[in-house]
Every structure is written in structure tokens, then in C-alpha cells.
Design brief:
Layout lengths: L1 E6 L9 H4 L2 E5 L4 E5 L10 E8 L4 E13 L1 E9 L8 E10 L2 E8 L4 E6 L2 E9 L6 E8 L5 E7 L2 E9 L9 E11 L6 E14 L21 E6 L2 E3 L21 E3 L6 E5 L11 E3 L2 E2 L9 E7 L2 E9 L6 E2 L2 E3 L11 H5 L2 E6 L2
Antiparallel strand pairs: 1-15, 2-5, 3-4, 4-15, 5-14, 6-11, 6-15, 7-8, 7-14, 8-9, 9-10, 11-12, 12-13, 16-19, 17-18, 19-26, 20-25, 21-24, 22-23, 22-26
Length: 358
């Protein structure tokens, strides 16, 4: 299993939405998608809230999409706080797997806080336990997609909630999915109402390839850090921030676009930065999440450059910036210096930055 995406939402603002997600939106009179400290499960940090409330003859839709390549297995975990006042004709999509815009397999929640799985909207299995209202539970969803030999697992706070194998887990007939959707929607006829809200925190997504991250990860908390000091290398040209301190050009929240940034068009140019120390714990991966764009017609790729124990190393994964700003995640499940697992000491002794690879 390979980690593909993770966030705690801690450094995100509402204005970052379109740079973080492949697509996202909130339609309806009062529909909202917000990042705020009020929605976090921790005393410090932020969470993500989906909110909607409507009157008769109206509808709302709040969603966030993450687009990936096609894979036959996906694993998903998120801290979820069920709504305290769900009502009406509302569909809560905790995780919807899609292929070409069509639903493949889904984890949903009913207004009473009970989780269930569906195949392209058709109910396959329903739990019996209600998630605790008004408090966070860590919900995980793993799916192997296949028309006859598929399987799924739903866990809540580490305990099995739903699972089955040897079943049809593809609503399209194809053993694959490449988009993950989170959100909820509601509609009202001539009378009644619909709405509610969902709070999310500490999100991870992984696929079924590789071997570094195995199975559902269990409850975990991504630690998001902004650079706080210059590193040993500063090849990229600084605009904005404090002169002579490249880290001050890229430690803004929210991302401020072209107000302050680092830039380079030189192959192999790199800049490394220092970050606050992390607390002791079991580490699954280190992820660099730059907000990047390109400003020419050429194709470029960016990799992570690390500097540790006097040696420079480069991540295997590379990302390709587009012409508008987007948050691109480069995942390192092992230390590129020696290929071994990350430890707190290794992370705290390493400078992290980016290099123009192509």
C-alpha cells in the first residue's frame, strides 16, 4: 500500500480550497465548505466543515474531490464528527469512489449516524451501531474493487464495523477508481427541510500498490509544519518575504500566490529549509506539500531535496506543476538518504526543500 495524500487541515484557509482539491464546491443558499479551528478534534489545529440547510423546493450540494490515477484498491481514513442536528432528505458521503464520473463503491452515513456501504447507490451492507453524536470517531474504509472477488472493510476507532469478501464492489463493472469524493447533499419537495453539517479532521488516502504502508493505518494525526529557518542551500530566487531569508517567502498561510515566492528555471537548482522539531511518535511518512505553478510552456517536474548528515538526497516521486497554483504532495515513506524508515531524530536532523528535476 502506498500513501497518496494526507492532511490535518491545520495550515489551510478557505481561500486555499481550489488549490488543495481537484475540484470542490458548495451550492445552495447557505451551503459552505470551511477550514477553521472550531472544527478540529484537537485543542490546536483546524478541521474542515461541510454545512447545508435549505427550505422547501430547494437543494444543496457540498463536496470535495481528489483526482488520482486508476487503481484497483483504495484505503481511506478520516476523523469524522457526525452532525448534531441532521434532518430531512440528506445523503452524507463519507467516501465515494468514482471512475470516469460514475460511482464505483461508496461509504455513506444515514441521518441517525449509522454507516452503510453502497455500490453505485444500491445499499450493500448496513451497520448497527450509531456513531457518537457531537464527538469525533476515526472512520476507515478499504476497498478492493472487483465484480466478483471484491472486498471491503469499514472500521471505527480501530474496531471492525462492516466487512465482506468475494463480493461485487464495482458499480461500473470495471475493477478500478481514480477519484475520491467527500461531501453531502440534500433536497426538499413541497414541504419539510434538509441539512446538517459534518466536521472532518486528519485525513489519509492510500492505494493498493507498494509495501511501505500496509493495510488500514488506524487512528493517526498528520503534523503540518511551516518552515521556520533557512537551510544550507538557496539556489531559487526569492521574491517577497524578508530579504536574505528564503523561508519567509514560503511560510504564509493562506498561500499568497505571487506576493512572496521562490522561483527557478535552472535544472537541478535546489533550496532547502529547516522546520520546527516534531514530537516523538511512530512515523508513517514525510510529505512535502508545496503550492507550486509554472510560468512557461515547458514541462517541468519537481522533487524533494533533503540534506542530512552532510549528504543531499532526492525523492523518487516527482510532481508536475500546472500553470495555476496547486498543492502538490510528494510522499516519502522512507528516508531517501538510506532507504530506511523515518524516525523522529532523522526528521528533526534533516533539511527539506525542492529541486527542479526536469
Amino acid at each position: 500500500m502506498t500513501l497518496r495524500f494526507t492532511t490535518s487541515f491545520d495550515n489551510l484557509q478557505d481561500s486555499d480550497r481550489d488549490a488543495v482539491f481537484s475540484s470542490a464546491g458548495a451550492s445552495g443558499t447557505s451551503a459552505q465548505l470551511n477550514f477553521n479551528s472550531a472544527y478540529s478534534r484537537w485543542p490546536t489545529g483546524k478541521g474542515m466543515r461541510f454545512f447545508g440547510s435549505i427550505a422547501p423546493l430547494n437543494s444543496f450540494n457540498v463536496f470535495a474531490h481528489l483526482q488520482f490515477d486508476l487503481q484497483s484498491a483504495w484505503y481511506f481514513g478520516i476523523a469524522l464528527r457526525p452532525p448534531t442536528y441532521p434532518f430531512g432528505n440528506t445523503i452524507y458521503e463519507i467516501c465515494t469512489l468514482q471512475d470516469g464520473g460514475s460511482n464505483v463503491f461508496e461509504l455513506r452515513m444515514g441521518p441517525a449516524g449509522v454507516l452503510y456501504v453502497t455500490r453505485n447507490g444500491t445499499v450493500v451492507d448496513t451497520g448497527s451501531a450509531q456513531l457518537s453524536t457531537g464527538q469525533f470517531s476515526f472512520v476507515e474504509f478499504g476497498v478492493v474493487i472487483h465484480p466478483t472477488a471484491g472486498s471491503y472493510t469499514v472500521r471505527v476507532n480501530g474496531a471492525n464495523y462492516l466487512n465482506a469478501s468475494g463480493v461485487n464492489t464495482t458499480g461500473t463493472g470495471n475493477p478500478r477508481a481514480n477519484l475520491i469524493r467527500v461531501g453531502f447533499s440534500g433536497s426538499v419537495g413541497t414541504s419539510g427541510s434538509a441539512g446538517g453539517e459534518l466536521w472532518f479532521d486528519d485525513w489519509y488516502i492510500a492505494d493498493g500498490t507498494g509495501s511501505g504502508v500496509n493495510g488500514l493505518l488506524g487512528d493517526c494525526r498528520p503534523i503540518e509544519l511551516l518552515p521556520n529557518a533557512n537551510g544550507s542551500f538557496s539556489d531559487w530566487t526569492q521574491t517577497g518575504g524578508t530579504g536574505g531569508s528564503p523561508y519567509t517567502a514560503v511560510n504564509d498561510t493562506p498561500n499568497n500566490g505571487d506576493t512572496s515566492y521562490l522561483a527557478s528555471g535552472t535544472l537541478n537548482a535546489r533550496t532547502t529549509l529547516r522546520y520546527p522539531a516534531i514530537p516523538a511518535g511512530v512515523l508513517k511518512a514525510v510529505v512535502l506539500s508545496p503550492f507550486i505553478r509554472k510560468d512557461d510552456a515547458n514541462s517541468h517536474r519537481i522533487a524533494v531535496r533533503t540534506y542530512e548528515s552532510g549528504a543531499e538526497s532526492t525523492s523518487t516521486q516527482q510532481v508536475q506543476p500546472a500553470t495555476s497554483y496547486g498543492m502538490q504532495q510528494i510522499v516519502m515513506e522512507t528516508d531517501p538518504l538510506d532507504g530506511t524508515a523515518w524516525t523522529t531524530t532523522k526528521v528533526n536532523n534533516t533539511e527539506f526543500g525542492i529541486v527542479l528535476a526536469t
